[in-house]
Amino acid sequence: MEINFLKSFTLACGLAVLLSACTGVTKNETVTDSTRSDSTLAAALKPAGPAPEWGKTIKPEMQVVIEKLSSYGDKPLETLSATDARKNNTPTDAVMDLIKQNNIAVPTPKIDTMGKDIDVTGGKIHLRIYTPKGGNGPYPLIVYYHGGGFVIANLDVYNASAQALAEQVGAIVVSVAYRLAPENKFPTAHNDAFTAYEWAVKNAVDLKADPAKIAVVGESAGGNLAANVSIMARDKHIMLPVHEVLIYPIAQADMNTESYKMYQNAKPLNKAMMGWFNEQYLNTMIEAQDPKISLINTNLKGLPSTTIITAEIDPLHDDGIMLADKLKTSGVKVNTRNYEGVTHEFFGMALLVPEAKAAQAYAADQLKAAFK
């Protein structure tokens, strides 16, 4: 059981709370200052210096988070071993410290959590299951995959995103701790991701979930995993997710796209880090062209309706756009939104970054519509 997790991670939980709804659902939208209604927050979070050279359009709150992350003085991730890289501070650490320093109120969580270990080929993986408080179900079910380049991060780092989905959609969320590289090379994470989805489908009723209302959501590497789960479900002829939400997903192997060039030195994700992630996860660099990694090279026909969320200041921005285009040409219904002035990893920062609050609302609206 993981009920005690809520006490020790109350601050991270608060990041998931949504205070206002995003309006409308349209295709290929770029969201600008219309999302920024929290003037009190904007006044409290002011950058200490000028906008960074790699992100001249960065929003003030986003810049404050990046400045805090930089203040820890961690060595560049791409210069470290995977073991040492996992000891670096994360954007979540920066957000939690800023919440403390600015005395930002953290709402009481509206979910309970429990842990579950399941068998996978060659071992076990852990699931964290979020259940809305005060209801009886059956609830919709979301299987969520965290980011971290298949190498770093964990369920705690991405707790805010998983909790946001559970609270705002009114769904059970199964957050998947797939095994990480380099200890577990490609395609271990992909296989673990699908095994977790299979488990969720088979155990939906026991979780008080509706087995006809299951979606997948993932961020970054997790976005890649979520899309692969849909592909594998299609190919293995088991129940397809009713929807997938892919948040700045890894979708192709070319690191010379326009967004890679523009934001090669960005934080918290840069081009060198992406190369390092590939080296850690892949057995050989040739595998970067594998359809599981380079989703734009695979058959995407027959996949569920898809929502893709991108960040402007992100090497992976163009990955999301390219994947959306390929899905559309494959006959898949796709809605996309790009959020300006924010970086990779912004999605879980709803208590500090207005764009994150809006993006969570958008994702929740898309999922609720699909579950209907």
TrEMBL record:
Keywords tagged on the record: Hydrolase
Domain Alpha/beta hydrolase fold-3: 142-347
GO molecular function annotations of the record: hydrolase activity
Gene3D superfamilies, A to Z: alpha/beta hydrolase
Superkingdom of the source species: Bacteria
Statement: the UniProt record of this protein carries the keyword Manganese: no
Pfam families in the record: Abhydrolase_3
Extent of the signal sequence: none
Protein name per UniProt: Acetyl esterase/lipase
